[in-house]
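Morning!

As promised:
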Amino acid sequence: MEGTAITQEYMNFRSQHLLSVKGITLESIDELFIVAEKMRPYAKRQKMTRVLEGAVLGNMFFEPSTRTRVSFGSAFNLLGGEVRETTGLSNSALAKGESLYDTAQVLSGYSDVIVMRHPEPHSVSEFATGSRVPVINGGDGPNEHPTQALLDLFTIKNELARLGQSIQQLSLTLLGDLKHGRTVHSLCQLISLYSNLKIQLVSPKALALPCKYVDMLTNAGHQVEIGSDLEKGLSQANIIYQTRIQEERFESEQEAKRYKGYFRLNKQIYSDHCLPNAVIMHPLPRDSRNDANELDNDLNKEPGLAIFRQTDNGVLVRMALFACILGVEDQLEKYDKEVNWQIGLK
Amino acid sequence: MEGTAITQEYMNFRSQHLLSVKGITLESIDELFIVAEKMRPYAKRQKMTRVLEGAVLGNMFFEPSTRTRVSFGSAFNLLGGEVRETTGLSNSALAKGESLYDTAQVLSGYSDVIVMRHPEPHSVSEFATGSRVPVINGGDGPNEHPTQALLDLFTIKNELARLGQSIQQLSLTLLGDLKHGRTVHSLCQLISLYSNLKIQLVSPKALALPCKYVDMLTNAGHQVEIGSDLEKGLSQANIIYQTRIQEERFESEQEAKRYKGYFRLNKQIYSDHCLPNAVIMHPLPRDSRNDANELDNDLNKEPGLAIFRQTDNGVLVRMALFACILGVEDQLEKYDKEVNWQIGLK
Amino acid sequence: MEGTAITQEYMNFRSQHLLSVKGITLESIDELFIVAEKMRPYAKRQKMTRVLEGAVLGNMFFEPSTRTRVSFGSAFNLLGGEVRETTGLSNSALAKGESLYDTAQVLSGYSDVIVMRHPEPHSVSEFATGSRVPVINGGDGPNEHPTQALLDLFTIKNELARLGQSIQQLSLTLLGDLKHGRTVHSLCQLISLYSNLKIQLVSPKALALPCKYVDMLTNAGHQVEIGSDLEKGLSQANIIYQTRIQEERFESEQEAKRYKGYFRLNKQIYSDHCLPNAVIMHPLPRDSRNDANELDNDLNKEPGLAIFRQTDNGVLVRMALFACILGVEDQLEKYDKEVNWQIGLK
């Protein structure tokens, strides 16, 4: 594939906002993931690129999220760029009655691209109307978190490839609190770009996937099974996507507690009921307290546990996004340097 | 103008603290603004300079201020330098009884130049006595915020130039809470370096500009008019400087509420009572809540609305300050590189 | 000494965690301090190195500490690397029940080396079990803070050298709250690698050094004197290490208040009772409030006051640690650049 050909394909990312998974096409995903794969040697520190030297990311987390914030920031640093950031809402100008439009006008004068997280649904889209540079939605409350969905899909494709399978062989079990998890909802939207896959939805009835997403999957032509039997739900999956009970989204703590630890996955269950080499994913953080423990630590050495490959993939996907939005995805190697320090642990 | 000539002029900035607008001369302002203009292509990403590669800014915000902190940080990054920063007072060593002198001694061992904001008046000057590197006052409570005054003056000169006018043709209306706003007070001091300009002060009587500043303007030889009639105050101005009611500086919330939304400026008033092309400035944030709304959003498309050009100018002025303080203002081009990424939005 | 020889000596730092002062050998300290001395011209900005350009430090302060966080961050910047950081515990994934193992797995995918501070003892060691990159303990509650101990020892050796003395001539007085100060405890462990030194322990009886550390010093063959007479304790020391009353570690504020300001050191006492040129150290922050004031400001011009040379040394030692852990200590000069800006104040 030629560089110029790639360039023309990125209609959906170049110099544009990424506010939602809506509107993303299979073609743009495929192209993005090709770039993400090109990022692997840089992220693994086999080589280094300075392609974004001098560029500035505004990493604006008006709702704190260490993991996601650092992932975006490191991705930008790995491309050679600088990161300015903020964390938390209180005391900011927003608290003095500044509109999101104004905040965006001001902050977009300070950076080349902005990642924004904010607790209010649709706040990031409102912010984007005032921004003079591309805005990436880093999560707007219960609404969207498109880069999580992209890294989840990238991980699914990669893990299947590791098993010698293609996306058309996907048998995906979504497990746990399917009602509240925005990562599950966004992933369903991306999965609906494909057709004729096997999807198992396993949850307590009260935490079932909203009809809207079930319909979306069905309309895409997938074979959807809905149930609340853990063992049955696991038996056919080559990819298992476990979720955390989103306590903070329940009406009462009491209500949330009812479901905590309901669908635990541990080594015993994995060995007894899952396909050999079945892949386990989770959007993280997983709750490792005794009363929750949805994904037991005794799975930590299991080769199928992909949860940390999944977060590692987040860096690749975010690097690729930055590169495509800023239009440097074909220039990476031009700015290559050798890595001169020791990698990892002895 | 020769490089060496410029160098000799920067008596007021090179290797010095900038703690106050006091003591700044017209000559040093003129020279600073020449450098600020040289920063425009770098800030607009038409080219890039790495002149401060390896330098470290200590961006010490002991009072949070996302906008100002990010503006300083980005300005330093745009010159190629690195930024270490802190935000907030609690938990810091200051809370354990450390003197500002000690804090400065310690932090000045970690950076090449320090920006400091702190809620207490004169705290930054006290801090500077212990610093071994230049300190820029990023705002010390109600006292001073010299870079805001400089960027305001820079904007006034630029906007007048855009209208084909010079500073000597300035007819400036200061509008709103002229009692509490430190930006207005500092701007009055800089304006008093000039003479024979037209200044209109429009506020509720209880929020009038303190006598000290009125005297300063009068003594400088300006034609000062004081009043509380919005429409009359606007009619002659080529520059209108609107302010926010500084709720946090009133004795009670009740008291502050009395004046909230008192002098609103909107498209109707602007069209009916202002000169064509009159420039609207504001130190931001503007309060866009319904009960305040001192500067209506229906002005957002008005070419005269300069509030975001004003914040953009803040980056230029701060870049210029860093360059002059660190003595690299004549070396920018030596470290030029091309910008290889896409700028702005499609 | 040849480069390769140095390389082979760093068994204790290269590609390894630094979690504790335990296990550090005299040989590895000597080698580290040689590298720290090589850092001096870079820290003093006489030249610049970009040896870690492209590397990313994860500066993870789950307990806030402006001074230590900025010191580590600046040290990494001075080597040319980038810094991603976090400050504070609340709202982080840890609060959602994530294990330290998981946090480490995730964060270690985002950086080349991690500094971690956390309020819980042994938390950093637990974190390190999940990290795929080297972890430096930046302080785990009352337990350990190994880089502080290293910079203290480095300062002792440097100050003695400044007086024309060697470590074997050390007569060290540890002064104040010897019960709670982790810096004192860690320093005692490093001092115990030597033998036959003079150590005076001066504190109120209730705040005496725990037996464990007294035994450690005695077993190492040091001449240990224990007392609560300030003047006697000072009379023989060439190095005085003063501490702060660790209010936050007392059972009640009342209890802490009893000892506040108990052993004050000021110019009068220093002149009357200390050896000429006796060196004064302090882990900082010193409490300069009237009721504490353990180290009076009237000592600020005293050449023997080494407290800010001590914090400056922290940068050298942390630069050396990063360089050794990442294995670039012999490549510094290869990446040298000139410093092109003005240093310090006029």
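The CA atoms of residues 6 and 140 of chain C lie 30 Å apart.

Hope this helps with the figure draft.
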